[in-house]
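Lab manual, section 2.4: Encoding a predicted structure.

Procedure: take the sequence of the chain (535 residues), apply the prediction step described in section 2.3, and record the output as structure tokens. A sample record is shown.
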Amino acid sequence: MKNFITLLLSSVLAVATFAQHDAVVPVNSDVSHVKLYIGGAQITRTASISIGKGTTKLVVKNLPNTIDASTFTVEGKGDFTILSIMEGYSNQAQNLPNKAKPIKDSLTLLLTQKEDIENAQLILSEEENFLNLNRTIGGKETGITAAELKQIHEFYKSRYAGIKKEQLANRRKLTDLNKEIERLKARLYPFTADRVSLNQQLEIVVMASKAVSGNLKISYYTSAAGWQPVYDIRAEGFTKPIDLILKASATNGTGENWKNVRFTFSTGKPVLGATPPVINPWFLRPIQPPRPVAAPMSLSRSKMAEEIAYESMDYDERQLAGSSADFSVRQEAMLATDYDIPIGYSLATGKDPLTVEVEKTSLKANFEHTATPKLSAYAFIVAKIPNTEGLALLNAKASIYLDGAYTGSAYISPGMVSDTITLPIGVDNGVLVKRTRVKEFTSRRVIGSKITETIGWQLEVSNKRSSAITLVLKDQVPVSTDKSIQVKPDELSGGTIDESTGIITWNVKLDAGKNKHLKFTYSVEYPKDKHIILE
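Recorded output:
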């Protein structure tokens, strides 16, 4: 008896120990930090856990299917040890929003009714076929009286009419049901369009020597989010510094909403590989090489830490409110620049981009006007900025504001960076330019086998502003590509000409309220048997 009790207690303890080692604990996690790249994102989630003694399997559910599962990393904080992690998928059906449930239930009911009617139609069709196969019974059977035959034919006639009537009623019901089904589908579509399933999960096996509480930090990469840089260029007059404001346009297509999340915007591009290319021997063979065919580029992300590579690269004084740029922290890594935003933001999945100011730089600039009246009747303002601080620019569209008014847009690129950075500011309506042809300087002469044409132009500049300006004015003369055609610049009114391009440049200083006229002429000599087009 004593041995039996001992055996029974041992069995109970073994079962208890076995159950303890196989505890499964669901874990709720929230997105706490998102590091956005220009095409991709590193997501960090945090979770609080409570585990018992022994080994425990922690299951983190409702993760988006847009995750690159090979990039999962897990860190723990507490008196426990992480033994393993394994990604997988949950078989549980994903719930729709509460507002969509009544629509879904109604749609399911109508689809069931439709299926019942379609089955009824099949039964009626089979019955109709059966009647058709037995219509000649009177001619094949003997011993049937005329009264009995009449009764059979009346039955066929009545039942056949009944079948047709039921089939017609069912077709009408199906038409009405299909209309209602399509209407419900249209109502349900906004709740399901671009909806990403949240049935990916992560299983984390941990071990503890006692019951403890702790925290988990889970990180992974996804290509379903990212950011694009955009600039604001703001100028207040020609005596104050200009503000170059870098903004981040963040997108979230992961399938889950981000609520009160801290963002980091990185100029890195993890879609690029970190491994340098290897050049192989180039062998020539006497064959015609095939036409190259473009193919989509793929990238393995099995070792994210080794594969990721990066590409480095106050609103106006009247504004009272601050912006996120006042709080952002710029960190320059070896291959990228990171902008940390300590303020929490929310960004719903599949919605419009979130725009966040990440950096504001005030730059001392020298302003000048430039005009090419042959191409445009407007004078443009450009800012010349000495790049003494090693300013780095990103490929981005820039919105330009002059004295608080939007003047247009331009495209900023790293290629604009040099000892002096030139940024477009916009059109200055206070400076007028005009180009007219001067008839008295225009002529056409024929001498022997040659024709000589002389063309003359007048450029007029008017400064309607209350301050002096410096204007770079440009025009051109043609450049000959034929030895038999000779181009000769005549009068340039002090302009300098680039012989290789034919572009003439004038540097004009014009006081407030003043006008200035410039003239230039050129001659073209060419054979009579050739036809050329001049202005």
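Check your result against the sample. Residues 146-192 form the longest helix (47 residues).
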